[in-house]
């Protein structure tokens, strides 16, 4: 096989570390020798080639057009003469500082980020991601050094507000919820979404919690709720890395722009205007028959190209959620989570990871503990806080409030500073960010009985 004559699309697929989704798509390397040869060839590819050869034709895909048309040539200039391998080597040097990487990110395309990640060991992905810093703001400041935020995920199988309130109380008492209090609704219509939004808004207002809420419905439902006067903080949408895959989600770039502008118009943030929350996941394009023969990790990185167009507060790769068809076991989930986090951070995104697996995958909570610990050391922006790590509505396994407390304690990390101050005021945390015993006099314990139903 002549690797130097391969298209970028073929070469990226063959160079990808083994995963079940690429095998299912029929694009993976046949064996480890072929994979290593492809990686060696990829290392010699000039980064400039990614601006000349698109993995999905420019004329056929609006995500490709977005990536090419909005590429920052001035930011790219310092690395324009590098090959993929030279880029990898430079990223590991002390020259690649936090400030330098921040300036560079608009000049890196998603395909460049994906390509360099395929040449990296686990330790490389961790080391470089830890140097990337992305700060976003709405009602608090997310992504500062020494912090790790948590999405409090109080899902309920019937959207019962008392059940949601109980889970929310539990999470707040563990110091979770500074990224967002975000509900995946069991019933997805405007009336129910509006009801949940008012409940969360009342909770945040009553207890003066410096955080934001989100009900994870489709952007069109959120826009209708905004039109009806609902208190929307963040606008959520699942996105992918191809136009066809995004259309399978019922969105395109124009609709995302409309939703972004509608949410911005509310002006509900008091310290910033990052109002979008995006979720992604390797395999979504293939499951929609919309991958165009591109490997799932490169498609995932292209989704980050879509996300950064809209300056989100949060981006979350739900890494093991789609299932073993795409990431078969704990080893594949672990590698994918670190790749996604690395690529997102390198592209300038506030990257979180839902460290998760489905019950039919060859994975368990030990695998998630390892990935959590590695991501904590990688400077991950936020993780999930799910009661007992078991989402009883979505039926998958994630990370718990206790897991968040563990990684913060291990690495001496705190929540967002505004949220940390609120936790201190209620004696949930001390000034060092350590959890304190909950006193019976704590007003937060009244939450479950005061929620407006």
TrEMBL record:
Listed EC numbers: 4.3.1.7
Which GO BP annotation is one of this protein's? ethanolamine catabolic process
Chief site of localization: other
Keyword Transit peptide found: no
- What are the binding positions for adenosylcob(III)alamin in this chain? 185, 237, 287, 393
Q: A Pfam family name for this chain?
A: EutB
> Where in or outside the cell?
Bacterial microcompartment
What broad class of enzyme is this?
lyase
Cofactors required: adenosylcob(III)alamin
Has the keyword Ion transport been applied to this entry? no
Q: What does this protein do?
A: Catalyzes the deamination of various vicinal amino-alcohols to oxo compounds. Allows this organism to utilize ethanolamine as the sole source of nitrogen and carbon in the presence of vitamin B12.
How is the quaternary structure described? Answer: The basic unit is a heterodimer which dimerizes to form tetramers. The heterotetramers trimerize; 6 large subunits form a core ring with 6 small subunits projecting outwards.
Full protein name: Ethanolamine ammonia-lyase large subunit
Which species expresses this protein natively?
Desulfopila aestuarii DSM 18488
